[in-house]
């Protein structure tokens, strides 16, 4: 936990005043608040400094979280028009994506999962959908980068174990290879659905449907629209015991990534009853599971929380960024499935008010380098506001909470397609580096080993291994 002990000791954690003003009836006020929070976020990033690597966040943040951050900064620009961070975003995405055109940089081999790639891929997809400034013509383009991921995932789809699905990890030597999880398959589903919508090519829609069907068949999406975390693959038999070897835990981002992808499919099918039932079911489960009462009801009746780890305070660095993604995907859902907007709007607005109140931390550098008194905490439920936890995740979540209230309004950006003005050039054949070519192994640091084992959930493998042990 990055609780600021120094600040706590000095008694300067929570200032009673609301440090970030937010009037949700005033677009300029929302943009101003978003700008303040975005500044605090970007001050964590050092990749554009001489000698540093574009696209990497400093320790303890992993590569995937940087991809998530740049995806959010693409949306920040699209929603607010503020292009202050376009240069670093473009530089980072080009540097990380285009070495081999596949978001599979050799430096990240030791921890590279399908989900890690996916967060960068979704940043590229958002860039294509919003006409974010295109890379130079001799570099792989945003759409082609997303297509490259799609093609990689098709090649990694494994029918012979668990009847389908992607494994979490790409490389056999990484911890987590014997685990098929919802976030990896959710990245595939989400990007395939959006590629189908952008290009009109039905092959993408067929794959999105295949991923969804597999998640249901294996029981990772239940008939009640609970999205469970993943299922272990027996390394000897290759079988998946989806009763004893399942991690049933629910995380905000798993629900969100399928909700948004389902909404895109709903839109693509001109509002089919099948996809509508899925959208509405996931939204109902999401609202019931990941929202809880705020201590001060004037903020809103319910606000988002990471129910598994937030109440007891054991969310790890990765998990402390998940709420921001669910927020992003709720806004995306309201955009392409407008019948959900009246349900989603009050959730987004309550989150925005709660998050702005939580951005009142007086935390000194180096832990927070944004405007004094505007550090964002993790919990949004507290009447007092700031809870003392700061970091990239907290800052990203709060930015999402505030800025996505600008989405799904009249005049808000709608995701473009090739037919409605999207300019990104695609490449159906994009594939990138295959697994057996030119892998440079980076040193295995403790950080890498921790990452490989614990990206999604500190308890994932504990549950899976624990169940296996009971069976033996
Ligand atoms: C890095 O980018 C930030 C945000 O745009 C900017 O404020 C800063 O000056 C840049 N640093 C360097 C060394 O280019
Ligand atoms: C890989 O690491 C080297 C050495 O730190 C760095 O120069 C290079 O830019 C990195 N490549 C990527 C894609 O991050
Ligand atoms: C396990 O998978 C099988 C085969 O896909 C499926 O029929 C069954 O319903 C699943 N069980 C659970 C508990 O999800
Ligand atoms: C959706 O509507 C469009 C335009 O009316 C039509 O071209 C397309 O075939 C429809 N798609 C489906 C799946 O019904
Ligand atoms: C599809 O999304 C667009 C916004 O991009 C929206 O105007 C349209 O109503 C949506 N279609 C359906 C069937 O909801
Ligand atoms: C549609 O996408 C698939 C998968 O990438 C590709 O093989 C096919 O050529 C595409 N079809 C057209 C008409 O472009």
Automatic annotation (TrEMBL):
Belongs to the glycosyl hydrolase 76 family. SUPFAM superfamilies: Six-hairpin glycosidases (SSF48208). The chain crosses the membrane at residues 450-471. This is Mannan endo-1,6-alpha-mannosidase. Keywords: Glycoprotein, Glycosidase, Hydrolase, Membrane, Signal, Transmembrane, Transmembrane helix. Its EC number is 3.2.1.101. Pfam families: Glyco_hydro_76 (PF03663). It is an enzyme of class 3 (hydrolase). It catalyses: Random hydrolysis of (1->6)-alpha-D-mannosidic linkages in unbranched (1->6)-mannans. It comes from the Eukaryota. Residues 1-19 form the signal peptide. InterPro entries: 6-hairpin_glycosidase_sf, Glyco_hydro_76, Mannan-1_6-alpha_mannosidase. PANTHER family: MANNAN ENDO-1,6-ALPHA-MANNOSIDASE, MANNAN ENDO-1,6-ALPHA-MANNOSIDASE DCW1.
